[in-house]
Task: inverse folding
């Protein structure tokens, strides 16, 4: 399953890129499992994704909880809690 | 009229309010948020999630129109670097009566703060840091659900 990953704010800065294409195995079924799997890509990924309590996610541009499925997803974004306005 | 815009250019207050007032409504309310000048911030930079941000702002505007029977609504949010005193966001609502216009305006800014994917980074004399989210913003948004 090919996924477009997007990272924002300090998640983007720590990982060192704002976008990458990944191909997780089929047993990666939720956002949380995807985060686990991404953490093994590099030390920078591991550092950025270490503290789940500080991470939020969107699947195909909709906010989701970390236990949400990624089945059928094309784009997954991981970022800190939002601070607009 | 619904206008939901994300832009790097400075926000044109007069043009935006004129567009909302052009609906001929009895009541127009607005809210503006600014980069603080009083706590040592040298520059504020806003990052966002292109595509999702515009969709969220438009969705919130549509929800406000349906809930308060608004005649017009504008939500304009700036991104990129900004100096202290500059306008970050402008929300304006037009309705038949003041309560609807004022309530819809509060709804839009409260929900924008928790639902729209923006991130603030502030630069001070001692360095730059990403601004942390505040629990009280979540509480303010929750009262509209």
Result:
């Amino acid at each position: 399953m090919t996924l477009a990953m997007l990272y924002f704010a300090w998640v983007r800065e720590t990982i060192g890129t704002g976008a990458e294409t990944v191909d997780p195995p089929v047993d990666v079924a939720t956002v949380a499992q995807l985060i686990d799997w991404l953490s093994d890509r590099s030390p920078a990924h591991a550092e950025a994704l270490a503290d789940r309590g500080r991470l939020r996610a969107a699947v195909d541009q909709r906010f989701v909880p970390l236990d949400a499925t990624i089945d059928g997803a094309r784009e997954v974004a991981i970022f800190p809690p939002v601070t607009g306005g | 009229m619904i206008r939901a815009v994300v832009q790097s250019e400075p926000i044109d207050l007069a043009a935006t309010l004129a567009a909302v007032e052009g609906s001929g409504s009895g009541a127009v309310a607005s809210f503006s948020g600014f980069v603080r000048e009083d706590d040592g911030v040298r520059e504020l930079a806003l990052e966002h999630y292109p595509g999702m941000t515009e969709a969220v702002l438009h969705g919130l505007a549509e929800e406000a129109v349906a809930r308060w029977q608004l005649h017009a609504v504008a939500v304009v949010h700036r991104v990129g670097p900004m100096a202290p005193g500059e306008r970050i966001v402008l929300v304006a609502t037009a309705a038949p009566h003041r309560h609807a216009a004022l309530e819809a305006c509060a709804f839009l800014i409260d929900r924008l703060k928790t639902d729209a994917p923006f991130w603030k980074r502030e630069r001070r004399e001692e360095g730059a840091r990403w601004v942390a989210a505040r629990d009280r913003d979540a509480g303010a948004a929750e009262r509209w659900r």
